Amino acid sequence: MRDPEIPEFDAAHDGPRWVAYFDLLGMRNRIRQGDHWGVFDAYQRAIERLERDRKHHSKVQHTWFSDTFLLATTDASGPSFAELEQVSRWFMYFMLQARIPLRGAIACGPMYADFAHRVFIGQAMVEAYEYGEGQDWVGLALCPSAAAAMASLGLPIENRLSYAWWEPVWKRKPDDAPTRIGACILGSWGTLNGKNMCAEALKGMAAGCAKEHSAKYERAIAFIENNPRRMVSPEGTGQAAEN
Q1: CA–CA distances in Å: residue 123 to residues 35, 98, 115, 129, 177
Q2: CA–CA separation, 122 and 128 (whole Å)
Q3: What's the CA gap between 135 and 138, in Å, rounded?
Q4: CB burial class (10 A; 0-12, 13-18, 19+) of residue 167?
Q5: Which residues is 70 bridged to in the sheet?
Q6: What is the pTM of this model?
Q7: 134 phi and psi angles, rounded to 5 deg
Q8: How far is CA 36 from CA 43, 75, 96, 157, in A?
Q9: How does pLDDT run across 14-44, given as a tens digit for each residue?
């Protein structure tokens, strides 16, 4: 009798989909310093946030391992993109409000995703990983595959309220990476007393970190401040509002 714990290929898990990769920053250093409670608290906050969002976004599944969180949709449709990018944006927002730095990337393409057995293989996951790990800032980037898929759905980056083009600074540049990529203008969908709360959180973290780590925060702050919330004309092909 076959062991049910050993996965077998299931075509139902194979196909194009939207994928988001997130890496919580600084976890290894906190462990080395003996801050196990701080690491556990960061994981707990992240998991609770994703579990809460999953109740309202049926097309998005998630898993995590070590300091990495992976989200994937059931297909590569426009409605699936809307759900995944909304979960991703708010995940970034709430983690930053909790002073947990992270970086991420969204891709779109073929991927085998068996969440029950935690088996994940495919181009979309590899691309999301390369762009998520490669960027040297605190932020959420759009991989070239995601930008192309968005354009094909009539949702080009130029017409998205919370996205703009960015010329990244790389730690490890992915092969064939373009000069500029799309990125999320964190916190642009709402302010408090006229202040972008993601920018405020980033400024607080930058002030409290070692000088050699401050550049990644400063790049994110500059990107937000250089891209104030943009309005979309009624005749535009993109959405006029983002939640």
Answers
A1: 35, 32, 17, 10, 15
A2: 10
A3: 8
A4: exposed
A5: 21, 63
A6: 0.86
A7: -75, -30
A8: 11, 37, 19, 40
A9: 899 999 999 988 766 666 667 766 667 776 7
